[in-house]
Write the structure tokens for this entry.
Amino acid sequence: MTTTEPSGSVVLDKDGVRLTIDGALATVTLANAAKRNAQSPALWRALTEAGQSLPGSVRVVVLRGEGKSFSAGLDRQAFTPEGFEGEPSFLDMARGDEAELDALIAEYQEAFTWWRRSDVLTVAAVQGHAIGAGFQLALACDLRVAADDVQFAMRETSLGLVPDLTGTHPLVSLVGYARALEICVTGRFVHADEAERIGLANLVVPAAELDAAVQDLAGALLAAPRDAVVETKALLQGAVERSYEDQRVAERAAQGRRLRDLAGLGD
């Protein structure tokens, strides 16, 4: 499968990441199809920079991968003694100070955290392999549209590691603890039909229709007034941690802000 290059102005193009802006729609493309969009620390820094480069006019961000796979996960070069040029190898990281290791992983996680900002809606267009870090990157987004050839898998545990790129929280939220545990520990593939049935994918379409389906969804997301969307996203994000009564209070407060804004009485 070859996805269609989005229109718009190229804002960033480095280390396997390309950011284009077309009005209120931004597209982040993993652009190393020859390596199935395998990930590296340089790519993670570029993803973080992409998030920092979004103008305030952007309301929806689409994440896509060029070629047949969304992302095959961490580049296996990370597991070699030499690692990536100019980067600490996994062995070097393990031998280092614990606080330094924690800070380095936190830096890597930044590439995965900004997708849930309340001021934008994010959609992952996922085809082919979405493995390990690729799976976690898809999980970082608010919504996922999957091609019917998709194969999700969390392979970290089988390598003696744990998923550490922020994927565990959304995975449990979407499919529940027991199924999340089984998916992570077995490292098995979750195919399109199961992904849609258990809530990993909001929508599954034929691979040839993935781009069109994502564009249709982006258009629908852009149709509602921005401030109402921002308030609704924040309200839903907080619902998991709040009690029923606290959520009622949050709903009233949010609606009060919206009504005052609509009446021209906002701050």
Remarks:
- The longest strand covers residues 9-14.
